[in-house]
Amino acid sequence: MRRSTLAAVVTGALALALYGATLSPTISGWDNAELVTAAHVLGIAHPTGYPIYLVLGRLFDLLPLGNTAVRLALLSAVCAASASALIAWAAARITSSAVAGVLAGAIAAANLPLWSQATEGEVYALNALIVALGIAVFVRWTFRPRPSDIVWLALIAGVGLAHHRTALFFTGPLLLTAAITQRPGWKVLGKAALAAAAPLLFYWYLPLRSAANPPLMWSDLTQWDHFVSYATADVYAQAYAFARPRADMVAMAWDLTREFGSQITVVGIALVGIGIVSLFRKSRKLCLSLMCSVVLLSLWNLGYWVSDVMVFFIPCALAAALWAGEGLHATVAGVESRFGTGARRAGAAAGVIALLLVSASLLGHNWGKCSHRNDWVHYDLAYGMMAQLDSDSILVTNHYMPGAMYLQQVEGMRSDVEIVNPTGYYQSGISDRRIVRLLASLPKKYSPDPSDSAEEKAAATLRFAAALGKHTQWRRPVYCAVSGLRRVGDLPAQALGGDLFRVSPEAPSLLVQLSGQPPRALFDDGIALAQVELQPQTAQRRDLLHLSLDWSCAQAMETPLVVLVHLSPADRPGDEPAPRGLLLDHATWLAYGLSPVAATPEGMAYHQEMVIGVPSNAPAGRWEVSVGVGLEGSGRVRLRRVAEFRVLPVSGPRSAEGVAEP
User: What is the topology classification, in CATH, of domain 511-647?
Assistant: First the structure.
């Protein structure tokens, strides 16, 4: 077996084992939930649509393994492991060293951006595979130029453009270098042009599936102008492209470089630097082409103002891994040439030590950040929200829509609920024609711009929910799930916990009579928790807990008051950290709808109801419920223990409705 093949096989196997050990058991984010649902129903996700990913995801969804979210996560794991194996192959091909190849593969596999995307159903692992294919083919072409490799590079660039356009920023310079350097004939260039254009046919998936009206569809793409705007992600380009200030770009570049350096240690950073110099001496066109791709992609990414921009730098991490492999080989070769053949064993041992050191650093630094093995937080957020809705209700939401759609379309939960997005997206599954007519005549104030603040978007969502209730004459219960909502005039809405509100034609009555018993807990600014009731006292995983809170306020409060509810295993030592992946913290607003919160009359209190789901991965035993209250933005809030309940051992598998199956 060749050294390059050995390095690729070893790296791919280890990477796949690593990803399998940290794979997400369910949805792990809202983009993830949207993509998993879109693949399951062959729907249309957010721009640019990712048709190649959705088709591959649907094929993986047919596997008899776990649930749909696990199958899509497995697709990411296979793509990421294959990308790491290709980088290991390319590094070993350049250096003729299996150890150098495995080092490059280890850095590629276990760096924070790629590992974090390899354990959940997302598009970036497939993007990494496309880029790694381009690098591997370009490395092969560098040492043995063949016209067919130019055609392969063109095909890879076309696949990248059909999947995620950032891949083109990286593969494009490699293709241009090969084409300009070799100067192939018109026949080869014609084949390359056809190869680059062929993958774009996957975009026909979008209008074809749009005409089929799938349950999850971002927009109607049967019209040409809508299709072009969607496929080019015009809505995102206007809001985010080149929107980051230059000072922030420099600071982000430094932060990302420092973060990558902390993962691979000083040894890894030194190897990357040595590798760049060594590869430049060995093959200028290979080194300069990779550097051009890294610079071009980095300039685009640094100007793109989104919170998760780090994952856009995965191709740059792959190039750095390749350089580190070359740096290790150059260092070992330098030691052997300086001290003679007698130092060969010492050089080989030093290479293995460097490999182990960098790998251990990557694992120690990134395991806790990338492992989704027991992470049910996003699933429990969506589940708790959907489970407490009344029958035949309407849920108006934007931020939480992917999770709700996943539960409804993939797991078959709450098919009686109508899920509506106020921005006009994802409306193909609506059966109530009155809602469809209202959306068709949607006023501008209900459709916020993508550049609006979270509070402005939340306010528009609540206004739309109230308008929808009036439009349907309140025949169905109307709920609103929004993130970032503060207070919107006198719109009647009752805070139910988390970011869920019930919208009604009239403001709910909040004042109730006090029982006369001493308060359960005292807080600052004259706020007291007069009475607490928790039902039921015993529960199983995913059961709903109903928490009643009665608050008395000695004075009016101008600033909104935040109520925090924290769940914790009672038998856990105080200094022991809580288990990872559990949804333990819940927040809501005290006396939502009152601004300011007036002082409660003598003998009266503000009554509040919260519904809290028992985490899907909650360990059996006694649990405590702690409550705190404080001003918005006040930072840490002191919690008081007010109730407890017991989680029973799981007696059988759980269904989507949260009850034990026989």
Answer: Immunoglobulin-like (2.60.40)
